[in-house]
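Protein modeling request. Please complete all fields; requests missing the sequence field cannot be processed.
Requester role: graduate student
Desired output: 3D structure, token encoding
Chains: 1
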Amino acid sequence: MLGMAAAVLFLIAFLINAAEISTNDVFTSTNVMLIGLIVLALHLAGVGSGLATRGRRR
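Delivered output (58 residues):
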């Protein structure tokens, strides 16, 4: 799920950059891309996967 959110953020950053849309200082294409990278890093780290291992089961 976080991987798809990162893809959407990258798409938004690309559209802002490609269309040269002027935004405020907080919502620039670089900031949206960095948020996308953070979400992608969380996805690769396994955050939000829903799989919790609690020791060995027999």
